[in-house]
Design goal:
By secondary structure, the protein is α/β, with parallel strands linked by helices. Helices cover about 40% and strands about 25% of the residues. It has 8 helices and 16 strands.
Length: about 350
Amino acid sequence: MAQVTNFFVGANSGEGFRNLFGELLELEDTYDFMVLKGGPGVGTNTFMREIGRTMEQAGTKVEYLWCSGDPDSLDGVVLPELKCAIADGTSPHVIEPKYPAAVDRYVDLGRFYDLMAAKRDTEAVKAHTHDYQAAYARAYRCLKAARQVELDAVTAVGKTFDADRVARRVAGILQRELRGKGRESGRTTKRFLGSITHKGYLWRFDSVDALCPKVYELADSWELAGESLARLHRAAADNGWDTIACMAPEDPARMEHLLVPGLGLAFVTSRTGMDYGQKPFRRIRLDAMADPEGKSRLRFQARMTALLRQEAVAALKDAKASHDKLEAVYNPYVDFDGVRALAAMEAGRLLSWMG
């Protein structure tokens, strides 16, 4: 059975839409990269699902990249064994080919719109577009306020963190788990393991379990794990192991989880709203290595952060509803049979490359 994993490369945050589309794949080592162009309701999700299902049936590994705006829809599909991928290259994650045709190429789904029919609904298209953009702006303001309150608490707790104590624990893990050698140099792939969506926070820990049977869980409510994960990552990369660095949606410069598939080893952080939910190989309670004062204030800040994020989720629901209305305008004017036929043709091309 084909190995299937699920990640995100886009995330909603207080700084707006964050994305790792530049980390989608290593273009210098890619055979074929389809960049889908079109627009709302034109069938990008249909196209990618068709290809993903075909490649699963063929037994090759499939990595699904889900959309933070609609986590039931795809932003991309990666086929690592074929060194091929497909991605939605439209706003807000515009992608342009670097090596046209030789490596990356446009796939124009816009050809499946009924152009003249769509133009009759121009005013509805404009209205729904403005509505969903306004709802996203409201969501991002709420997320920014939540993050500012949260960072105040994170800073206060961090001042009391016993970094030496956790450094000793990490040293023991390094000695036990990361002594073996992989390749000459390890490659790092960056992903988000989840995002806040119109359904609330969603985390794809199923991908951790699919790739890594041995999991260290770091109980971390206050962003204390960063240096430990960075140290573990450096050791894995230096020893030649490929890694998947799962970055924090609010701060893509900060690692939140680390997967080392070649060793079947993962290090995940967990907190309220981001629960691993399985029995780990080891659980390290980083929260117990800090002793902040003003715990009533920390509880108040946690409640405020949660309330502001609830408001953000409500705004994201409004954005999703408006975007659904926009797609409903376009859908009658899209030739979905044509989209599926093109997907079948491209899937056949991919299968011919499997050898």
